[in-house]
Amino acid sequence: MTTATSSDRPNGGGGVRQRKGATADEQLPPQVEEVDTSEAEEIEREREEAEAETDALLKRKSRSPREKLDEEDEEYSPWVDVLRVISFLIFASCALSYLISGGETFTWGMKHPPKYLQADWWKAKLRGPLYLTPTELAAYGGQDESKPLYLAINGTIFDVSSNRRTYGPEGSYRYFAGTDAARSYVTGCFAEDRTADMRGVEDMFLPLDDATVDAHWSPADLALLKEKERADALQRVHDALLHWVRFFENSPKYPKVGYVKRPKNWLDSEPRRPLCKSAAKGRVVRTIPKD
Length: 291
Known about the structure:
4 strands
């Protein structure tokens, strides 16, 4: 009796035996990978944006020069240039204010701005200088507050309205207002010397004559000495008056507005004034020269 081999056995009956070495696809069912929908949309959007940028770049490169200029004109905004100009003007204004004020302020808030930054100075320049007689000048001495406050020195009129506290009727320098008191600036006699007559002022700088002391010089030498003394005294008067003239001319607080109008040779009709007591008090005799 012949024994049947395994290959001769039918598939039915005793079951089916799996073969060794079967593949994984034969062993496991296929799996489907799930993708996040929102992430996929984001990826797709980024891809589309990149393509759009690439297309725009290619289109921009392929444009003609005329098209490029037209597009630049369309994109141009004047507000950027306006902002630049305003910024420059602000910076320039601050720098100029600092320089002109001598480091006082960046914003033009100067207590005493230069004359050319004052409206009254420009008004005076446009209308020209005033010419006032001594009588007309007296009307600007501060009694009428509706009028400006003027003073004159050596024939030149200055507006001191910005300092009424000093030059007004109650001020310590009220004697200078409404007149040309050039003499008093040198002698220091404010009340007595309210005049522009400078004759004899040099005497305050001259030594007193003394027969005993003067005997130490010969008549000829004494005459030469007196001549030199007078020349030196006149120079001192000139320098003292010039100091105050320049004070008002250079002060930004007091603009020059005009000149005093007088008749020619007006001093010929004026009596010669004696030296005031305060000025005469400083005179002394000559110093005897040492051998």
